[in-house]
């Protein structure tokens, strides 16, 4: 009696293990199939990356324009007082490829010419004109420029540089660019060709890398903050807003921080949203909360702490997390508004092109 019972139990256990293994393998196969379909089927987040391109270029142009009157004192010959012209602190400047601005820093005319060239490249970057040619030159000159004075930089410079490197593998000019208009007439790699498949894979892998980088920065920043007593105590937001360096708007800082519970909510809320950002992206409902919260977070930093270029850089990168359907609806609404405000003659002419434009918008996923 005992041996048959043991044999029955053994058969049951082996059958259960076999069924569990088969189920696991089927689930793994399904996940691999979903991953392959996502990776190879089409380029993802094209509109989001287009917004990233536009905002990054606008950030670069805005920073250059804002510092144009003080360019020589901050970055050029007038900045020799900080010792970086003699011995750069950044290792990037010591690499010949990223030393263009450093080599001409003592020549005001040459430095200004290079400065203006970088501004022009920033505009072309925004417009998406010959993006594959503009991006490498802009990247090299931007890194060369931004590393000229270590004392005026911030962490936004790091994310800007990393994002530019990842953009080499993606297709940020596929939408809302001059290149997109040209490629609509003649695409380099027609769909179905090896070049198109390679471009799609590199684009999607670059998108994954950018997502991972952003989530890592948010999670690491949130966990680092949680270790500090000011953050754990709930008053960390108060301190920088009442310093000379970051208290850009003293009256506004007083208004924001005069209610203690609001300071605590902002302090703890920033930690929670940074640490939980990746997980909140997994659901449509929580994704909206995360994006609204992180957008408010960066706007507050840009306005209250006087760091607009850092905030705009992070907002540009976070644009990839907004769904393509949302960007497509915004695109369609903007087109309708444009046609609605155009003169009657122009509106009649635009109506003839409405169908192809609508097809492109609806087809974007």
What this model shows, in words?
It is built from 19 helices and no strands. The chain is mainly alpha-helical and 365 residues long. Helix 1 packs across helix 9. The radius of gyration is 26 Å and the shape is globular. The termini are far apart. The relative contact order is 0.10.
Please give a handful of descriptors for the protein shown.
single chain; 365 residues; mainly alpha; 19 helices; 73% helix; disordered C terminus
Per the principal axes of the C-alpha atoms, what is the gross shape? globular
Order of helices and strands: HHHHHHHHHHHHHHHHHHH
Averaged pLDDT: 87
Q: Output the structural class.
A: mainly alpha
Could you tell me the strand content as a percent range?
under 5%
Task: Determine the N-to-C terminus distance.
Answer: 64 Å
Total strand count, please? 0
Structure at a glance:
The protein contains 19 helices and no strands.
Q: How would you summarize the topology of this molecule?
A:
Blueprint: H1 2-41, H2 46-66, H3 71-74, H4 100-103, H5 108-127, H6 131-146, H7 155-167, H8 178-185, H9 194-227, H10 229-233, H11 238-241, H12 250-257, H13 260-275, H14 277-280, H15 284-304, H16 308-318, H17 324-341, H18 344-351, H19 354-363
Helix pairs in contact: 1-9, 2-5, 2-16, 5-6, 6-7, 7-9, 7-16, 9-13, 15-16
């Amino acid at each position: 009696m005992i041996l048959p019972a043991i044999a029955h139990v053994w058969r049951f256990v082996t059958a259960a293990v076999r069924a569990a293994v088969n189920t696991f393998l089927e689930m793994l196969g399904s996940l691999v199939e979903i991953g392959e379909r996502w990776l190879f089927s089409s380029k993802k987040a094209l509109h989001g990356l287009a917004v990233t391109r536009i905002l990054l270029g606008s950030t670069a142009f805005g920073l250059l324009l804002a510092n144009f009157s003080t360019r020589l004192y901050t970055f050029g010959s007038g900045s020799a007082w900080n010792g970086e012209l003699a011995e750069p602190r950044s290792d990037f400047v010591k690499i010949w490829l990223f030393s263009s601005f450093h080599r001409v820093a003592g020549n005001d005319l040459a430095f200004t010419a290079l400065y203006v060239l970088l501004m022009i490249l920033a505009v072309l970057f925004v417009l998406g004109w010959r993006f594959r040619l503009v991006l490498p030159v802009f990247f090299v000159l931007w890194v060369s420029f931004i590393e000229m004075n270590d004392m005026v930089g911030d962490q936004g410079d790091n994310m800007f540089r990393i994002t530019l490197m990842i953009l080499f593998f993606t297709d940020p000019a596929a939408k809302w660019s001059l290149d997109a208009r040209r490629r609509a007439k003649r695409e380099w790699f027609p769909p179905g060709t090896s070049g198109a498949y390679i471009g799609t894979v590199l684009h999607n892998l670059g998108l994954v890398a950018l997502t991972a980088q952003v989530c890592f920065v948010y999670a690491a920043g949130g966990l680092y903050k949680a270790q500090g007593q000011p953050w754990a105590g709930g008053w960390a937001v108060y301190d920088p807003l009442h310093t000379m360096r970051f208290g850009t708007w003293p009256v506004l800082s007083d208004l924001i921080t005069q209610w203690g519970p609001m300071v605590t909510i902002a302090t703890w809320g920033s930690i929670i949203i940074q640490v939980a950002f990746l997980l909140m992206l997994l659901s449509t409902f929580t994704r909206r909360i995360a994006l609204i919260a992180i957008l408010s977070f960066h706007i507050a930093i840009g306005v209250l702490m006087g760091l607009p270029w850092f905030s705009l850089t992070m907002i540009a990168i976070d644009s990839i997390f907004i769904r393509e359907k949302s960007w497509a609806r915004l695109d369609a609404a903007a087109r309708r508004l444009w046609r609605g405000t155009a003169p009657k003659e122009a509106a009649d002419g635009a109506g003839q092109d409405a169908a192809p434009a609508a097809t492109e918008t609806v087809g974007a996923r």
